[in-house]
Amino acid sequence: MSITEKALPANTLLQAQSPWRRVAVEFISSTTAVVGLLLLVVIVLVAAFAPWIVVQNPYDLMQLNVMDARMPPGSLNMDSGYTYWLGTDGQGRDLVSAIIYGLRISLWVGIGSALIAAVIGTLLGLVSAYVGGWVDALLMRLVDLLLSFPVILMALMILAWLGKGVGNVMLTLILLEWAYYARTARGQALTESRREYVDAARGQGVGPLRLVIGHILPNCLPPLIVIGALQIARAITLEATLSFLGLGVPVTEPSLGLLIANGFQYMLSNEYWISLFPGLALLITIVAINLVGDRLRDVLNPRLQR
């Protein structure tokens, strides 16, 4: 570090860094956020490499044995010789394998729906802010309509019409989530469009598309990133709720919500592990995402940057 850098206060050095580097430095300064990020990375890696980690494919009916159903944690499979560390469910599935595969579905649904909804909502929000007029009024009234209904009620109505399936659940979540991004993108774009750099770009002859995508959109990303992180957790929770209620993924593709639902009927029989361990996996995943999202919200909050 040079003599000049030593003479500068810490906050001055932080402001002199590039914006994204400053965000990274402030993010890792929080122990809870780092713990949440590490947990999230481990969860994603375990889910991604599930076929090479688990001892049983819970989707393959040929690998399941109903004689192994509802075995308590630590039970030994006499045929294969491996241990059911978390027990088995009512279909004889190893809960460790089922939870890891369930994480794949939950993460795929949550991240996939959030990303697609972010793209659609952001583009519509930018169009609404830039075009204005009746287009803005129409899109914002549609957003108000979507946000005025309870999400779970809307999801139940849509899935009752579409039916079960991972694709249908993702489509439902996209239809319900894009409005959050659209409203945020519109508000941020309206704020940015009044700044001097936008007027300067117009004066240099920058076209509308390049102006919106190249100049306004990058400055709208911080709040959208925060919403995206929190919406992923919200989508995973909603998918688990829908699967628990029987309108989410099919029985042949057990997500965490469906695993919890499968064990709920055995709770009074003292076979707690069937619902407990998938519930803990869901809880840890949601907490990890929320820890990351909360820290991003604090770091990217414009009021805290002043």
UniProtKB/TrEMBL annotation:
Q: List locations, semicolon-separated.
A: Cell membrane
Q: Which domain of life is it from?
A: Bacteria
Query: What protein family is recorded?
Result: Belongs to the binding-protein-dependent transport system permease family.
* Topology class, membrane: Multi-pass membrane protein
Q: Which GO biological process categories is it annotated with?
A: transmembrane transport
Give the transmembrane region(s): 27-54, 105-130, 142-163, 272-293
Q: What is this protein called?
A: ABC transporter permease subunit
Q: Which organism is this entry from?
A: Pseudomonas syringae
> SUPFAM superfamilies this protein is in?
MetI-like
Q: Which InterPro entries does this UniProt record tie to the protein?
A: BP-dependent_transpt_permease, MetI-like, MetI-like_sf, OppC_N
Q: Which UniProt keywords apply?
A: Cell membrane, Membrane, Transmembrane, Transmembrane helix, Transport
Q: Name one GO cellular component term.
A: plasma membrane
Stretches assigned to the ABC transmembrane type-1 domain: 103-293
